[in-house]
Amino acid sequence: MLFIGDVVGAPGRRAVALLVPVLRARHGLHYVIANGENSAGGSGITPATASELFSAGVDLITTGDHLWDQKEVMGLLENEPRFLRPRNYPSGTPGHGSAVLEREGLPMLAVMNLQGRVFMGELENPFTAALAEVERLRQRTNLIFIDMHAEATSEKIALARMLDGRVSAVVGTHTHVQTADEQIFPGGTAFLCDAGFTGPHESVLGREIEPVIRRFLTNTPQRFAVAKERVRLQGAIIEINNTTGRAESIQRVSEPLPPEPA
Ligand SMILES: [Fe+2]
Ligand SMILES: [Fe+2]
Fold it and tell me: How many angstroms is it from 109 CA to the middle of ligand 1?
């Protein structure tokens, strides 16, 4: 399976459309999951941007703290089974925090989305939420992937260590900076602290550089437009054993998009 880190704006969506088929052919991908929380103009997601990702071959979209930035997200939360919000929202919140993917001739793959609480908005405890949900999902399949959308490295590592041997992989998102700590824990859970982001890397986390510097220099509000140059698709490819659910390999992906012909 391929997991794609936060897709940022139109350049990110273009990278997904052009590079998922390339990666699928190169690696024989069975499932493709993408974090889409920044896919609409860099903030939030709409049914239109989600459908672009689905047409590119994405099977399921996860999100995070930018979930509510576009009001049209309600249509996805209420009607789109291939769309997840963090599982640890209070019960009664629209949408789903986990899903089970099924495709002809392939084993089922469960996916859960969580959001951290360190340096982020207050949600319910992701650790207790994960324990309960993993038990529930394991009644259907032992192939389980988790997108842990969080700021603090400790929170992501601790969550993954807690679930070692009970899920196939935990990959972090949100910081937009890919970490180099991909590994498989002793119990068979693959881990990468942050998948990075898919979009323009000549930027500050996908946004134009100058306004961000101005904001830090002067503390005045700025419009952060999505940047344009040096587009990459970032994420991880994970190989999971069909029977045991253990990860067999995890490999970082940081694939450049060839520049558009002038
Ligand atoms: Fe993000
Ligand atoms: Fe985020």
Answer: 24
